[in-house]
């Protein structure tokens, strides 16, 4: 057996954690308190996810118990909204726990909010207020998530060239 073949095995043994035979590297816990900006971003994302969940449950229940024009469409819409609620809820939890992966889903959720807000604003009436609030929440959350304090707290630093 050559030394080229034995070196990777020894490197793998020393790099793997001792517990459970798992080969995933351990991620260090973030140091220091969670910044208020990160908590605020997580709160807004959580509220958005909760609103989607409540709206989806309402549509689903009305589709099952009410007299919708199309029960199948109401049920599908409700289930879709419930499924969509999982992304901002997971992102909010990840942000609270300071997981770096959570920033991407949180950013995506906010970017997707803009067309929804525009549609609500274009709907007129009371929907204008909802659309403006959604757009405002998206702008605030985006600003909080790209802030250097929040990115450092998540372990995301500047890219090295």
Describe this structure in words.
The chain is mainly α and 161 residues long. Helix content is 72%, strand content 0%. It is built from 6 helices and no strands. The chain has helices spanning 3-15, 36-65, 71-96, 103-123, 127-146, 148-153. α2 runs antiparallel to α3 (71-96) and α4 packs antiparallel against α5. The longest helix is centred in the N-terminal third of the chain and has 30 residues, at 36-65. The chain is elongated and about 55 Å long. The model is unreliable at 1-17 (pLDDT under 50).
List the helices and strands and how they pair.
Blueprint: H1 3-15, H2 36-65, H3 71-96, H4 103-123, H5 127-146, H6 148-153
Helix pairs in contact: 2-3, 2-5, 3-4, 4-5
Task: Kindly list the characteristics that best describe this protein.
mainly alpha; 6 helices; 72% helix; disordered N terminus; 161 residues
Q: Can you describe this structure in just a few lines?
A:
The protein is mainly α. It is built from six helices and no strands.
Class computed from helices, strands and strand pairing: mainly alpha
Number of helices: 6
Radius of gyration: 22 Å
> How much helical structure, as a percent, in the residues?
over 70%
Q: Which geometry do the CA atoms define?
A: elongated
Largest sheet: none
Low-confidence stretches: 1-17
Q: How many individual β-strands?
A: 0
Distance from first to last alpha carbon: 39 Å
